[in-house]
C-alpha cells in the first residue's frame, strides 16, 4: 500500500487549535488523535466525517474538559494528521470500521460516550452495533446508519455527484458550504491543511461513493446486522441534529423511533446549525453532551 503522510509543518499555528498530537498504529498506518482532559475521566469519543478532521471539534473540547470529561478525537484514516493511502481502492467502508475500532481498542477506551456526525455516525453507529459493551451513551448529530434500503434523498445524491465530477475537491470550501456561518479564510485554510495537493485526497474523494445507496451495497449486510443490535440498544441515546442540514434532515426521527435508548430522552434541535454543526454551534452542542452525560450516569 502506497501511503502518504502530511508534513507536520502544515499543521503549525492553526487558529484556535492548541492541542497536542497523539498517535497510534493500526494495520501499519499511523492514526492521529487528540486526547484532552483527565485520563481517568469519563471519555467522550468525537468522530468526524467527510471531509473534515479533528479540527472540527476545537470549539467543543474545552467545554467538555472544563466539565471534567476526557475528550478523544481521532482523525479517520485519509484525513487530518492520519496516514493517507494513496489509491482510492485502498478505502472501503469495512476498512474504515476496522481502522477506527483498532484505534479505539489500542487507546484502551471503555465506557465511551460516542458523539458522531456525518461519516462519524456511519462508522460509529456501526461500531456500537458490533461492540455495544464498550459504549455507555451515544449522541448522534446529523448522521444515520444507512443500509441502502431507503432512498438517500436528492440532497445527498447531488453531493455525491458533485464529489465525483468536480475537477478540484476544495475541502475547505466544502466545509464552508456546509455551515450556516461563513468561515474565516484562515479556518478554511485549516481544513485544507491535511491535503497539500490532490494526491492526498483519495480518501475524501472515495467516501461519498461508499455510502450504501442500494440494497445490494457491499456494506449493507453488516449495517443491517448492526441495526439488529441497535434495535435492542437500551443505553442512553440522544439525537442532537441541527435545524439547517438538508443532507440528514429527518433521519433523527427514525433513530428515536427505532433505538430503545432514545425513548424518554429529550428531543434536541440545535438552532442555527448547518451540516457541520460543530463549526456553527460547537459550544452549544458540547453543552448538550455535558448535560446528557450528567443526566445519565452509568
From TrEMBL:
It is an enzyme of class 3 (hydrolase). It comes from the Bacteria. The keyword Cell inner membrane does not apply. InterPro entries: AB_hydrolase_1, AB_hydrolase_fold, Epox_hydrolase-like, Haloalkane_dehalogenase. GO terms for molecular function: epoxide hydrolase activity; haloalkane dehalogenase activity. Its EC number is 3.8.1.5. Residues 42-281 form the AB hydrolase-1 domain. Keywords: Hydrolase. It holds the Pfam family Abhydrolase_1. This is Haloalkane dehalogenase.
Amino acid at each position: 500500500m502506497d501511503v502518504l503522510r502530511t508534513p507536520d509543518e502544515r499543521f503549525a499555528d492553526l487558529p484556535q487549535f492548541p492541542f497536542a498530537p497523539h498517535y497510534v498504529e493500526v494495520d501499519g498506518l499511523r492514526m492521529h488523535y487528540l486526547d484532552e482532559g483527565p485520563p481517568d475521566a469519563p471519555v467522550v469519543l468525537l468522530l468526524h466525517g467527510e471531509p473534515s478532521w479533528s479540527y472540527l471539534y476545537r470549539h467543543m473540547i474545552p467545554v467538555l474538559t472544563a466539565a471534567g470529561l476526557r475528550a478523544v478525537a481521532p482523525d479517520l484514516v485519509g484525513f487530518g494528521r492520519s496516514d493517507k493511502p494513496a489509491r482510492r481502492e485502498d478505502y472501503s467502508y469495512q476498512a474504515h470500521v476496522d481502522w477506527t475500532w483498532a484505534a479505539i481498542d489500542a487507546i484502551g477506551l471503555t465506557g465511551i460516550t460516542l458523539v458522531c456526525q456525518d461519516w462519524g455516525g456511519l462508522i460509529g453507529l456501526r461500531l456500537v452495533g458490533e461492540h455495544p459493551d464498550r459504549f455507555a451513551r451515544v449522541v448522534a448529530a446529523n448522521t444515520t446508519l444507512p443500509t441502502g434500503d431507503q432512498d438517500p434523498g436528492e440532497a445527498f445524491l447531488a453531493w455525491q455527484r458533485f464529489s465525483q465530477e468536480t475537477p478540484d475537491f476544495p475541502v475547505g470550501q466544502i466545509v464552508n458550504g456546509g455551515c450556516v456561518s461563513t468561515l474565516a479564510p484562515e479556518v478554511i485554510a485549516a481544513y485544507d491543511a491535511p491535503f497539500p495537493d490532490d494526491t492526498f485526497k483519495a480518501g475524501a474523494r472515495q467516501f461519498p461513493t461508499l455510502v450504501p445507496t442500494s440494497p445490494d451495497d457491499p456494506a449493507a449486510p453488516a449495517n443491517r446486522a448492526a441495526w439488529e443490535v441497535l434495535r435492542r440498544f437500551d443505553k442512553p441515546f440522544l439525537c442532537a441534529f441541527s435545524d439547517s442540514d438538508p443532507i440528514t434532515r429527518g433521519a433523527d426521527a427514525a433513530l428515536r423511533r427505532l433505538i430503545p435508548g432514545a425513548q424518554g430522552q429529550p428531543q434536541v434541535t440545535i438552532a442555527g446549525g448547518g451540516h457541520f454543526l460543530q463549526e456553527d454551534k460547537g459550544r452549544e452542542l458540547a453543552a448538550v453532551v455535558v448535560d446528557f452525560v450528567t443526566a445519565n450516569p452509568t
